[in-house]
Amino acid sequence: MKRFLFFFSSRKSWTLPYAIFSVVFVIIPLLLIAVYAFTDEAGRLTLDNFRKFFEHPEAVNTFVYSIGIAIITTLLCLLLGYPAAWILSHSGLNRSRTMVVLFILPMWVNILVRTLATVTLFDFLSIPLGEGALIFGMVYNFIPFMIYPIYNTLRKMDRSYIEAAQDLGANPLQVFLKAVLPLSMPGVMSGVMMVFMPTISTFAIAELLTMNNIKLFGTTIQENINNSMWNYGAALSLIMLLLIAATSLFASDDKDNADEGGGALW
Description:
- This protein is mostly helical.
- The chain contains twelve helices and no strands.
- Helix content is about 80%, strand content about 0%.
- It is globular, with a radius of gyration of 23 Å.
């Protein structure tokens, strides 16, 4: 009994619920995906699932198209989100907090409800659904994930760097390119990851905003799982996970470089 009480009174025991959660909902599902991906229906080890993916041009083209849509969405969110974050960070404290809440407020509504509202809006304006509607819906749903991390980074930025750049004769463009932008790169990379990862794996937005006429890679995975093709669907999921993992490693390297080299240099 004393050992039991001592265990739960130590700080290490506080991590136990998180460890259990990680094992049940993260590690075991990932292991199951890997097992199904490298086995056939009979449970034998095989690489046929991956071979099937590379031998079917439709699946490869869908994968490449999904990457393209994710890149376009991420770039548009960055182009629209960075100025918005800049404006918010330079507004009055109370005003900026109010505006940030207004940007985040739509996130309180389920993504399917927001997408259905977008479909209704396009129908009301007699705008045909398709690739343009898909990109619009992606940007609308994910742009707050770009704005908020950039806003936090700009808000916490040390203003002495900007003042030093101005004192040394830098014009506003040079101050932004040489001081503000490098120092805000951690927020930019966080926003890019928070937009790119869910965009490349989503399927509901594409189905609703294109009337299922445009398939993304997430739709392909969903169809295979729904058709009980667990092994092939797991292989496709593993391919997507490897792409996301590679993107995460690349983003973390860029973030480290930005942290080491950020500053006012001209």
